[in-house]
Write a structure and sequence with these properties.
GO molecular function: cobalamin binding; cobalt ion binding; nucleotide binding; ribonucleoside-diphosphate reductase activity, thioredoxin disulfide as acceptor
Structural class: alpha/beta
Number of helices: 28
Keywords: Cobalamin, Cobalt, Disulfide bond, DNA synthesis, Nucleotide-binding, Oxidoreductase
Oligomer: single chain
Largest sheet: 10 strands, mixed
GO biological process, one term: DNA biosynthetic process
Function: Catalyzes the reduction of ribonucleotides to deoxyribonucleotides. May function to provide a pool of deoxyribonucleotide precursors for DNA repair during oxygen limitation and/or for immediate growth after restoration of oxygen.
Cofactor: adenosylcob(III)alamin
Number of strands: 24
């Protein structure tokens, strides 16, 4: 059954009588069909959901014959069944299908909406129910996870995923902080708070003693979070700790996690298990929180100007110490370089966009940094699947998008009427200010499908226009609701400030410079929405103090079958897909052929490009693809990974149109410098972001890249321990050097790269394994010749100590520097540098075909054969084994892929269980992410958190 929605019958306007007449909303049908229940419009099927831990082989979950629409992927149905179905397994109370789940939630929303006067008539309530049901059924949007966990059950009706707490400078308040945080973690949510009210360790207590300072109290909170996690949670406790940059203990705060990271490295080198979830990781502190420094404009200007900056006492605000602002800024960047913490929050920017400043400042955020509001408050989230609004004509249906936003905002506001909260203070603040957090997922897929590069003016303009339309429509509906059920309780005292912020959003929309017809149409509708926001708000006020954020959308992103999460770009061009009939496949993302067709490529060219991507995982040198179109297919990782500032600029494009902030981490390569991180943080301030976090690849020990190597190394240790049970000291493995024999075979290769000539001599062991490399480039005695000699010795010694040649090839191919360009080697016509050429040549000379295939390195003969026959192998080597088979060895019907126009589909490598692992096997590049504690597979980045594609677990709070 197709997912085509009926045309909209008109705008779902709210009647706007005088305040107190409570006429209710009139809802028109946009998505559902009159006289047909949404469930009757799809084909349902029964599936068995079985989930195993791949490391142990243990079945961790099994439920037979669950019911889902036939167009839902296996991954989506598995995650929903394991995460969201309520009732004990095997009991009659256990939910058996998606209908029961959606009905449990939507019927609760409808009843509450009717009870609180949201709808004009019972017929409008029914239309609302059908519209929300249709959109959920067809994966147009999803509520955040707590809604699916709790709504309609006997549990407390908690609907919020994000919480902000507060703590004052008293022991009662500090101990209450521990208690409140613990209850929030127990429920699977996360919380953040600002510790800046607590006196520093440089100030005196009233009794005359010296205060402990906030960092000391962080230890207790960290231990509490770690205990709750080990007590049965499926993910680590998610928390955010913020400290103002003018706090006297700011340097100690900055260095906490970097110092602990050094301890982790020392313990790891001594043989302790320091992986994430390892038995020894609990011996270090501060590992359960994200840390952020709250900087203000005064400090940032001092950094720019190189001026001193005062640290202020908490008791009276007096300056008790003066520091060099640039030196302190450098310490922040150094710590972030070492361990990814602390992040940055820009205080003046945050509070300049604050709609309720008369009720208090915004001091902190939730753990993922997208929700920023008053202390002791919460926010419930929902996210739209943007790709669903892209029609077959490749036009974004802005009208349907508006209608969807209106319905979702209405449902989200209704939820506050019946919601429960972990503390009375949080409940009171949330009911008084009614903060909402609508957002979206699949932006990266939408941009690619429409031919926009993520890091391009067109991509940023389109993203900004969509975000502006979403938030403008949300506040317009909020003003309409205020006319029916009243504005939020705190609106009267904040009316001037709230209206000022609405005008700031409107001005940002007016200054948005569109690039193409696609974003121009969306921005025009956004302009009309913001005009209505300002006009209606002056008359009615607003129902909600906040309306929008951009969350990570980890688990719910998989529920909606999204290719990309939140504001993120596509993770990779090839993805891992489970099949209904069993087994798994490696397929090229379907947004790629759609984008190529939209850009005017012929069918034959599209097929050739997709085939190339299936083999290489990137588009560089793809046959027939114009270089100017490469940027459309740039991804978060891989050969054309988006540069750090590309991520920052995309965040800056969306930020002016959000009530809150954006959950996103800017990834940098392992080679990034401290200065580069400092510049990213500085540019974030200049671009007007509210918060920013960075992650340098491989900067954390406790984020394992794989465990295969670890198991091999552990085997001798375990055997020795079994043989000598009385030995208590750790056995440390040390590599030994395998020197080459006096007489060994070698080959000398002359080469020319970009006009620069040189010679390479490579010597091998008798079994043909490479053991040494000598390079001659430049005149003897020159600096270049000396550097190349030293480099040759380093590589040769590494080879003799057992470093695989594949590792050197992975590290040194694709390095870009001069000289570069044409070579005189028929197998390698172009090289990006001399290093790129040398290690490609070594791979061709000393690695097997299978090893080279994983690295995407082929001879000229192999490439020519691939163009002619579709395979790099000689025809006699292509056997029936290359046919599509599942894990049991049976033929797989590719119709089970449930994806139209699948250009390339083949069995996924046996070592791959998720897209992250498939990416690693295809490109030879590691994905710097932890293993899932539930199912053992490699997670992937999602906003400022990580999400498991296998079971839906997240490392954060959303």
């Amino acid at each position: 059954m197709t997912e085509t929605a009926r045309p909209a019958n008109g705008r779902s306007d709210a009647k706007r009588p005088g305040r107190g007449k409570n006429a209710g909303l009139t809802i028109d049908r946009v998505f559902s069909t009159p006289g047909v229940h949404p469930y009757d419009d799809v084909v349902w099927e029964r599936r068995d959901v079985v989930q195993t831990n791949w490391k142990t082989g243990e079945t961790v979950f099994e439920q037979k014959a669950v019911e889902f629409p036939d167009f839902w992927s296996v991954n989506a149905s598995t995650i929903v069944t394991t995460k969201y179905f309520r009732g004990a397994l095997g009991s009659p109370q256990r939910e058996q299908g998606l209908r029961q789940l959606i009905d449990r939630v939507v019927h609760t929303y409808r009843r509450a909406g009717e009870e609180h006067g949201y709808f004009a008539t019972p017929a409008d309530a029914e239309v609302f129910e059908h519209e929300i049901t249709w959109m959920l059924l067809h994966q147009y949007f999803s509520f955040n996870s707590p809604v699916w966990f709790n709504v309609g059950t006997q549990s407390p009706q908690q609907v919020s995923a994000c919480f902000i707490l507060s703590v004052d400078d008293s022991m009662d308040s500090i101990l209450n902080w521990y208690r409140e945080e613990g209850f929030i973690f127990k429920g699977g949510s996360g919380a953040g708070l600002n510790l800046s009210r607590i006196r520093s360790s440089k100030e005196l207590l009233s009794s005359g003693g010296t205060a402990s300072g906030p960092v000391s109290f962080m230890r207790g909170a960290d231990a509490s979070a770690g205990t709750i996690k080990s007590g049965g949670a499926t993910r680590r406790a998610a928390k955010m700790v913020v400290l103002d940059v003018d706090h006297p203990d700011i340097e100690e705060f900055i260095e906490t996690k970097a110092s602990e990271e050094n301890k982790i490295r020392a313990l790891r080198d001594a043989g302790f298990d320091m992986d994430l979830g390892g038995k020894d990781i609990t011996s270090v502190q501060y590992q359960n929180a994200n840390n952020s420094v709250r900087v203000n404009d005064e400090f940032m200007r001092a950094v720019e100007d190189g001026k001193p900056f005062g640290l202020r006492a908490r008791s009276d605000g007096s300056v008790i110490e003066t520091v060099d602002a640039r030196e302190l800024w450098g310490k922040i960047a150094q710590a972030a370089w070492a361990c990814a913490d602390p992040g940055i929050q820009y205080d003046d920017t945050i509070n300049d966009w604050h709609t309720t400043p008369e009720s208090g400042r915004i001091n902190a955020s939730n753990p993922c940094s997208e929700y920023m509001s008053l202390d002791n408050s919460s926010c419930n989230l929902a996210s739209l699947n943007l790709l669903k609004f892209l029609g077959d004509d490749d036009q974004f249906d802005a009208e349907k998008f508006e209608r969807a936003v209106e319905l979702i905002i209405t449902a989200m506001d209704i939820s506050i009427c019946f919601a429960d909260f972990p503390t009375e203070a949080i409940g009171q603040t949330t009911r008084d200010y009614r903060q909402l957090g609508i957002g979206y997922a699949n932006l990266g897929a939408l941009l690619m499908a429409t031919g926009h590069g993520y890091d391009s003016d067109g991509g940023r303009a389109f993203a900004a226009a969509v975000t502006s339309l979403m938030t403008g429509t949300s506040y317009r509906r909020s003003a309409e609701l205020a006319a029916i059920v009243g504005p939020y309780a705190g609106y009267a005292r904040n009316a001037v400030a709230h209206q000022r912020v609405m005008r700031k959003h409107q001005a940002a929309n007016d200054s948005l410079r569109t690039v193409g017809t696609l974003d121009t149409h969306v921005q025009q509708r956004a302009t009309r929405a913001w005009e209505a926001v300002v006009k209606l708000g002056e008359t009615n006020g607003y129902r909600n103090a906040q309306a929008s954020v951009l969350a990570p959308t980890g688990t719910i992103g998989f529920m909606m079958d999204c290719d990309t999460t939140g504001i993120e770009p596509d993770f990779s061009l090839v993805k891992f897909k489970k099949l209904v009939g069993g087994g798994s496949m490696q397929i090229v993302n379907q947004t790629i052929p759609r984008a190529l067709r939209r850009m005017g490529y012929a069918t034959e060219t599209v097929e050739a490009i997709v085939e190339f991507i299936a083999e290489r995982g990137h588009v560089i040198d793809a046959p027939g693809l114009k270089p100017e179109h490469y940027e459309v297919f740039d991804t978060a990782m891989g050969a054309r990974a988006i540069k750090p500032m590309g991520h920052v600029r995309m965040m800056a494009a969306a930020q002016p149109f959000l009530s809150g902030a954006i959950s996103k981490t800017v990834n940098l390569p392992e080679t990034a410098s401290v200065e580069e991180i400092a510049d990213v943080y500085l540019q974030g301030w200049k671009y007007g972001l509210k918060a920013l976090a960075v992650y340098r690849d491989n900067c954390k020990v406790g984020q394992p890249l794989s465990d295969g190597g670890k198991k091999k190394d552990a085997a001798p240790v375990e055997a020795a321990a079994a043989a000598e049970p009385t030995v208590v000291e750790k056995i440390v493995y040390r590599p030994t050097r395998n020197r080459l024999p006096k007489s060994r075979p070698s080959r000398t290769t002359s080469f020319s790269v970009g006009g620069a000539e040189g010679y390479m001599t490579s010597g091998s062991y008798p079994d043909d394994g490479l053991g040494e490399v000598f390079l001659k480039l430049g005149k003897q005695g020159s600096t270049l010749a000396g550097v190349m000699d030293a480099f040759s010795i380093a590589v040769s010694i590494g080879l003799q100590y057992g470093v695989p040649l594949e590792t050197f090839v992975q590290k040194f191919t694709n390095l870009k520097f001069e000289p570069a360009g044409l070579t005189d080697d028929s197998d390698i016509r172009m090289a990006q540098s001399i290093m790129d050429y040398i290690f490609r040549r070594l791979a061709l000379d000393y690695l097997s075909f299978d090893e080279r295939s994983e690295l995407g390195i082929y001879t000229a003969t192999e490439r020519a054969r691939q163009v002619e026959t579709g395979s790099y192998l000689p025809e006699e080597d292509v056997t029936e084994a290359d046919s599509l088979k599942n894990d049991a060895g049976d033929e797989v019907d590719t119709d089970l892929l449930d994806e139209p126009d699948v250009a390339v589909a083949k069995p996924a490598p046996a070592t791959a269980r998720t897209t992250s692992e498939l990416f690693e096997s295809l490109t030879g590049t590691s994905v710097d992410a932890p293993l899932c504690l539930t199912c053992g597979t490699k997670m992937r980045p999602s906003g400022s958190c990580y999400v498991c594609e296998g079971c839906g677990s997240t490392s954060g709070c959303s």
